[in-house]
Write a structure and sequence with these properties.
Layout: E1 2-6, H1 14-27, E2 32-38, E3 57-61, E4 64-67, H2 71-82, E5 90-97, H3 109-119, E6 124-129, H4 133-136, H5 143-159, E7 171-176, E8 185-189, E9 201-206, E10 212-217, H6 230-235, E11 238-244, H7 254-262
Parallel strand pairs: 1-2, 1-5, 2-4, 5-6, 6-7, 8-11
Antiparallel strand pairs: 3-4, 7-11, 9-10
Length: about 270
């Protein structure tokens, strides 16, 4: 198996090294693991692509490249250039330092990399490691992802729904709980949730030279969220698995909205 890995924490991030080990185990002794990752940290860029300027790419070692762009850029670079003659069988994005559960999904470059792969017709899985009090005490805070990641990826490859004939191919968002590998509970298939009262904001600061700057700040990650959601599964110690696709349509309201607006339609 040929696997492409990327992330949003950057080419030198420890989570990418963890993902390389997961990918190598899944690919097997005769497989290949290719890396195309951002040269610098790209956390929070979502599904951004560098549409208005070129992306420089450099080969650091065999099958390992750094690109000056977003995770989605890196996937496009791999497909259109680095691996253009031999596309990957699977794309893995992560392992993110911090969870991509709940509302974090909408901002995540880790998710953006997996989403771009799915839009290009490739199977893709995003992996993230929830951080908390227990992970801070571990020698390797990515321990849960490292130990349990290969089995989760293999099970998704064997049993997952990949929806290859759909307009928007499914991809998967996997989050490992903020616990040691030994305390990690089995995977649950759950929807994306939302934490109550938590969102991003700005924190104004004045630099020594008098210039005003705004820092983007987030909220606490251990608060109650939508019952039965990815956040609650993670806080309960479970690995969360959420099927996703790049379709933001609210399908449940389509028919109702069409009926409401039909009364206002003006005939030609």
């Amino acid at each position: 198996m040929r696997i492409l890995i990327t992330n949003d924490d950057g080419i030198n991030a420890p989570g990418l090294e963890v993902l390389a080990r997961i990918a190598a185990e899944v690919a097997g002794p005769n497989g290949e693991v290719w890396t195309v990752a951002p040269a610098f940290e790209q956390s929070g860029v979502g599904h951004c692509i560098s549409y208005t300027h070129p992306t420089m790419i450099a080969e650091l070692s065999p099958r390992r490249y750094a690109a000056e762009g977003s995770p989605a850029d890196c996937v496009l670079a791999a497909i259109g250039d680095v691996m253009s003659g031999n596309l990957p069988d699977l794309v893995l994005s992560g392992v993110n330092r911090g969870n991509n559960s709940g509302e974090n999904v909408m901002y995540s470059g880790t998710i953006g990399g997996a989403m771009e792969a799915a839009l290009q017709g490739l199977p893709a899985i995003a992996l993230s490691q929830y951080m908390g009090a227990e992970t801070r005490s571990l020698e390797n805070p990515f321990e849960s992802a490292l130990v349990h990641g290969p089995a989760v990826v293999r099970r998704l490859l064997d049993k997952g729904i990949w929806d290859t004939d759909a307009d928007f191919r499914l991809f998967y968002n996997v989050n490992f709980p903020p616990l040691s590998a030994a305390n990690t509970r089995p995977a649950r298939v759950v929807p994306q949730g939302k934490r109550g009262g938590v969102g991003f904001g700005v924190s104004p600061h004045v630099a020594p030279n008098g210039r005003r700057f705004l820092w983007i700040s987030g909220g606490p990650q251990d608060v109650e969220a939508t019952p039965g959601s990815d956040v609650m599964a993670n806080l309960d110690g479970h690995i969360s698995v959420t099927p996703m696709r790049a379709d933001l349509t609210c399908h449940r309201t389509l028919a109702d909205l069409a009926g409401r607006l039909a009364d206002d339609a003006v005939e030609a």
